[in-house]
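To: structure desk
From: M.T.
Subject: fold request, one chain
Message: Could you run this one when you get a chance? Sequence is below, nothing fancy, just the single chain.
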Amino acid sequence: MKKNYYYFLTILAVFFVQISFAQSITVTGVVKSNADNLPLPGVSVLIKGTNMGGTTDFDGKYEIKASEGAVLVFSYVGFATQEIEVTSNIINVSLNAGESLDEVVITALGIKKERKSLGYAVQAVKAEALLEGNQSSMVNGLQGKVSGVTVVNSGGAPGASAIIMIRGGSSITGNNQPLFIVDGLPIDNSTSSSLEVASANRASDINPEDIESISVLKGPAAAALYGIQAAEGAVIITTKKGKDGASVISYSGSLSVDNIIGTPNVQTQYGQGEQIVEATGTTINTDSPLSWGNSTAGSPVFNNIDDFYDTAITSNHTLSYSGGNAKSNIYFSIGDVSQEGVIESTSYDKTSFRINTSSNINDNLTLGVSANYITTKTNSTKQGNATGSSFLSLLKYPANVNASDYLNADNSQKSFFLDQQFDNPYWSIDNSPNTDEVNRLIGAISLNYSFLENFNVSYKLGIDNFTQFNKKITGDGSLVDNREDGYISQYDRENKRLNSNLLVTFEKNITEDFSINALLGNSVDELDIRTTYTSGDGFQAPGIYSVGNVLVEDQYISEGISRKRMVGVFGELKLGWQNALFLTATGRNDWSSTLPKDKRSFFYPSVGASAVITDLFKNAGNDITSSNGLSYLQLRSTWAKVGKDAPIGALESSLSTNINSLASSGYTWNGVDVGNPNLEPEFTNSFEIGVDMRLFESRIGLDFTYYTSKSDNQILRDIRVPPTTGTFYATLNGGSITNSGLEALLSIKVLPYTSEFKWNVDLNFGMNESKVNELPGFLNEVYLSDSWTFNSTAAGAAILDGSLFGLRGYRPQKNDNGDVVINSNGLPTLVQETYDDVTRMPDWTLGFSSTMNYKNFQLSFLLDLVQGVDVYNATESALVYYGLSEQTLNRNETIVLPGVDANGAVNTVPVAMDQAFYTDYYYKNSENFIEDGSFARLRYVTLSYKLPSKLLDKIALSSVEFFATGRNLFTITDYSGVDPEVNTFGAGVSGAGSMSIDNLGTPNMKGFDLGLKVKF
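Reply: Done. Structure tokens follow.
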């Protein structure tokens, strides 16, 4: 069936490219600035009413095929848009600077709208800004470039996921990431479980080089027309299309060298052993993986953690073709990323093919076809708490033991103490591979028909299908208990998503002052996921890692089927007056198959207004603008309501067999996978108000937004409840979350438009607070067990009257006065409690980006500031437990812990800071490892140079650019760990998530890139 997709799309693409149409003429010209008469490169030249067109070259020249009488639209950032009718084949244009006030942005459903007509905040990121940091993942390319958007990496493992959130989160246990739209088609951005290995999120499949621009729709108001899928906002991606004029072949390539940012500081003064305390004194048992032994003085020592990581090389290449005429166009690209990991044998390889075609069948009908085929393969090691985790295994090698000496003479795995039950990380690299392979096809066919002058109907049918094969191996010869003969766990997943969108629009100027825009639409979205899980214990033939090499009686096979259908009808009405005052109302009704029949239909509206104050005064004959003062002023406000349905399968409870060894083989309720047949949808009400101001001929721009939202009737999935309820988990409605915050974008063109030296500065500021106001019944917290840290000392949690991104863990017990109660042994009792003053999301962020151009040189950089974020350093907790932390160098000294005894008297009992103190108390007390993770990081610095046009003419090339980029060059922070920007478990943990939990993951990387961009 897949082959049929490829053949069909290829035949259509070739057919459209070969179509020729009615008579047209070739129009050429030069676009210059009216202020200095200098040519303007990159000016958009489009035939009005179509997407046919191109851009000016480095010398301001353009070429386009158009019919006589057609209207050409010339637009450029910082300049007034001009429309000129085609009356000859040479049209030279002079644009006026400082009046770029009618900017068009891509909004919901891919509809282009004037920014000034919107009642909500939308921020666009152009391709140049997205590519400046040379990130192989599109998600990471958004870091620091959009106010109110948080992007957190999950470490330096190849292909590791990054979580992206807009204005915090509205769901305690559900998905808090935005919807991703590519050319009007919703795509999957799911992440496989990241608890054992670093997993990629599917949005990273998109090649950044294929992207023309990104619009970030913030909050429910901006994404109201997308429905339940966009309750957390939307990221609208527009890919590159063919341009009218000469065909262009482009190449972009880079070579990157990466190293980890660092490793934890470890003590090397004490070696292998554990302390045995007896009445006669303390002795050392050296048969142990702990580092509580004797002094290493006079013995060789090894930095096993630092020596484990290598330098990684990445190559990134994209070759594309773009061409077209006034009636049809085509864009085709091939991209390849080959990334080595800093851990030997780990890698990430991605190859993508994209084709976009569009053709005007006649003056009113346009047909488009697009297809994107991507293959990815990831090789990784285990991380975090997983058995066989590389980092966790390294902690079990004391400084006097060489972890890289791991083989016996017969090539079997060497153990360095008698009862070793974990594998050497170097042995695991060679014998316990973890692989993930994905083949993905994203395709769409669209029709656009204009009729009766003011009406347009469009239809798009899209597919997003991928297959995934994931395999995790423990090789035979393992030292892990019950894994001596090896173990295999794998799944084979087929993910199908079909999307249908029908849209009818009406646009008309009723009078000279009054305009009306209306749309009606229908969408259908179907999801079908089928997964086969297979595992096996014990390989019959050594070294053959296949389920077929496991005895049938030692195999386990299960199948999971998830299906969902969402149907929506929606509409929008926008009224405009004098193109300066706008009122917009939307409404949408959704039907979701994941809710009960009597509750699966729900409606939600939005109302917004925008007033361009400067235009209103100007239309009234009182112009308040000035070249030395105010250029533009817009006020906007929107209220919106948006719904969210239940997860797949949340209505039903599951049955299972053999709950324990004494149970029968019949099906019975297991008390774990508990559904709720009475679930209702959750709703978010939001309000925002903003101002867009430009000063000094638009050289200074300030866009400011205040927002607040409240999410009620939360759907809480698989939350832990007391056993007295008759179950361990439950799915409930209840709870309320509020988000409120500020966003600001300050854009400065430092020097006048006439200056030969260009310097643009952007500052993106975001401040958000996510607070849990209510939880159902008896609950005072909701946490996800997927975020448990080393030895279950802490976990991410949503805290009642605290943060959605809070923390719970072991803490000293306190009395009613808030004093720590010390027992007779000098230590407090540790109990599991929550922190109402901890938040793992920053108080505010600031992205400071700057671009400087002089002649053919360009220098750009991004400085990212993240302030007021709490990080839980579980890696340091593990280092303390094993005796490798430098905090344990004061071992055997005494300390009196602050607190009171049972009678309220001040504690005076001294405690020896020996192994028992650290391994029974100190490492487990989560209060010891909560740190301020605020930081300032230089994300990148890029220097580029373009060859001059005179030289290019001699070598028959239209553009050649060289660039060099340094990434993560420095970080300023008080955090004691390796990196304060951490999310060990990745985007696979939903809800309260695992942001700012540092738990034995692969450190982030810093690197240097050299690249080349060529256009023929």
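Reply (cont.): The chain has a mean pLDDT of 89. Let me know if you need anything else for the meeting.
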